[in-house]
Design goal:
With 376 residues, the chain is mostly helical. It is 52% helix and 3% strand. A three-stranded mixed beta sheet has the order 1-3-2. A hairpin with a 4-residue loop joins strand 2 and strand 3. Helix 1 runs parallel beside helix 3, helix 3 packs across helix 5 and helix 9 runs antiparallel to helix 10. It is elongated and about 140 Å long. The model has no long low-confidence stretch (mean pLDDT 84).
């Protein structure tokens, strides 16, 4: 049985996907989970972070194998309508004689890799500063309530004149025209979070996992599902829509953009859900964050370099290029006119010099003729 410090085999990866989402997954479908499985492997590597083995999180955990982790996820799934104390006691029964810290770290890790939420205790500080740290311990709410509380509530409806996104709205155009930098986040609660100062936009890329969570809602795999879904259907649906907004399916620029960044989630399932609603009022959870992006996308371009390639306002773009062409043509014709004037001036001066020289020769000839007459 593979320990958490050992690389995951294909059999282990299949078991993970089957436990978390799909019992019918086959090896050929693991390619659709490559992005998520990379995140899973990185989480396991993080357990061995430190200079000394004694400082590794792995040495302070109750779960030591991938099978242990799956066992905790199965238990938490069945207790999704229970609070932390009940869930903690259930996990403690699975690992008797383990310390409180060992159980807590194992429980938090299970939640992180299952729900892709950054659930950590105070002793687990290995996380990017921009990613929100969530702590379930000491919270009296059930797991379902705790999870759904991490997502933004809907802002009031937006007037129709201001609620529609441009059909060209995409991550490529946000990058090209607004200098937005896409950063991939492993925490679903951090999705679409925009830093207004650095223009770093967090995007959650595990599209296939979202589809699988939603797929589980329509099944009756176990009694756990009868307690209600971990994530609401609207949240899962809207997150897929938002990914379709940022990365339009079938768009060539998007394919190139994602390929350069080593992402392939847009080529995976759900294949039957390619909708990308442009009306922000169709979104409940992500409406506020999408509104921020809309305002940024529609803002005037401040630099000339980006204005020259900004296709959001075609009339403005053509007017700018026409003005630039006229400006350079004016300069070119001005230079030509100046050069022609210089040439003409030189020609006139040369003609004058020739005329003066001829006059001088005539004068000399006249003086010679007059001198000859005097001698006679």
């Amino acid at each position: 049985m593979a320990t958490l410090c050992e690389p995951t085999t294909q059999a282990e990866e299949l078991a993970i996907v089957k436990c978390f989402w799909r019992e019918d997954v086959v090896p050929t479908q693991l390619k659709f989970y490559s992005c998520y499985l990379e995140f899973y492997r990185n989480e396991m590597k993080g357990l061995r972070f430190g200079f000394l083995e004694e400082s590794f999180l792995l040495t302070r955990m109750a779960a030591q194998t991938h099978a242990d982790l799956r066992l905790i996820v199965e238990k938490l799934s069945c207790l999704r309508s229970s609070d932390f104390s009940v869930s903690f006691a259930a996990i403690q029964d699975l690992f008797p004689n383990q310390s409180h810290e060992a159980i807590e770290i194992s429980l938090n890790l299970a939640l992180r890799v299952w729900l892709t939420l950054n659930v950590r205790g105070k002793s687990e500080s290995l996380t990017p500063r921009s990613t929100p740290v969530l702590n379930w311990e000491g919270d009296s709410s059930t797991l379902v309530n705790f999870v759904n509380r991490q997502f933004p509530s809907a802002i009031p409806p937006i007037p129709p004149a201001e609620s529609w996104l441009d059909s060209r709205f995409s991550a490529c155009n946000l990058d090209r025209h607004c200098q937005v930098i896409i950063e991939w986040t492993n925490c679903l609660a951090d999705h679409l979070h925009l830093d207004p100062e650095t223009k770093h936009l967090q995007v959650y890329p595990f599209k296939t996992c979202l589809s699988d969570h939603e797929r589980v809602l329509g099944t009756s795999l176990s009694a756990a599902q009868a307690q209600g879904p971990i994530f609401s259907k609207t949240l899962l649906q809207e997150t897929v829509w938002s990914l379709n907004l940022l990365f339009p399916p079938g768009d060539k620029d998007t394919d190139i953009y994602l390929r350069k960044r080593g992402q392939s989630f847009h080529n995976g399932p759900p294949f039957d859900k390619q909708q990308r609603p442009l009306d922000l009022n169709d979104y409940h959870h992500w409406r506020g964050r999408l509104l921020q992006l809309r305002l940024l996308h529609n803002a005037e371009t401040r630099s000339l370099r980006h204005a020259l390639t900004d296709r959001r306002n075609t009339l403005q773009l053509y007017t700018l290029w026409t003005a630039i062409i006229i400006f350079f043509l004016t300069i070119i014709f001005g230079v030509i006119s100046a050069a022609t004037g210089i040439i003409q001036t030189k020609a006139t001066l040369h003609t004058l010099d020739v005329a003066l020289e001829a006059l001088k020769l005539q004068k000399q000839q006249f003086e010679l003729d007059n001198g000859a007459k005097v001698v006679d």
